[in-house]
Amino acid sequence: MDLTTYAELAVLLVNSPDRLSGLPGLRALLEESGRPEHAGHLGRDDLDALRDLREELVAVFDAAAGGHEREVVDRLNALLRRHPVHPQISAHDGEPWHMHLTEGGRFSDQYIVGAVMGLAAIVTGLGVDRLGLCQASPCRRVYLDTSSNRSRRYCSERCASRANVAAYRARKKSDQARSGR
Q1: How far apart are alpha carbons 107 and 112 in whole angstroms?
Q2: Minimal CA–CA distance to 29: which of 10, 55, 44, 45?
Q3: Counting C-beta atoms within 10 Å of the first and last residue's C-beta, which end of the chain has fewer, N or C?
């Protein structure tokens, strides 16, 4: 079972607040997460539950970005208590038997359990500092740093490029100011 894939559900949810304005947006989120088969079974309760989870996950990533390791762990433990994990053996799409995480029938329950358990696995296996908040201003998107040297600082190549160009221009402007041009 690759829990990083489950943790990506948390990242996708945090980075998609616009998709939680209604059921059509949530269906689009499911398409992106690779779970389109659940789109027809969504209800208002699922949307409300995922909105609530998003707010809690934002607080987890903010605490991680602030270096508040204990707060991250306390928040994840609270979520794990509220949404107990039930592993299930599954086979689909021509894949061999493998493990899935589930908490019952509603789609939002399954999404929540996967996202929270995935983040818990990242924190316990790799460390709290692997939960990142993009350092490109004004971006506030989150990411998982699964690099071997803990070097990721941006949510995407686009933000990394934008930050590098801004830093280059600032250095160039500073150099020009010092040289009196």
Answers
A1: 9
A2: 10
A3: C
Look up residue 40 and give its two tokens: 């027809």
Domain that holds residue 26: 3-179
Q: What is the pLDDT of residues 12-70, one digit of tens each?
A: 999 999 999 999 999 888 888 877 666 667 889 999 999 999 999 999 999 999 999 99
CATH classification of the domain holding 166 = 1.10.3300.10
Q: What is the pTM of this model?
A: 0.85
DSSP SS3 for 49? helix
Residue scoring higher pLDDT (119 or 105): 119
- Domains of the chain: total: 1
Nearest-angstrom CA–CA distance, 166 and 111: 37
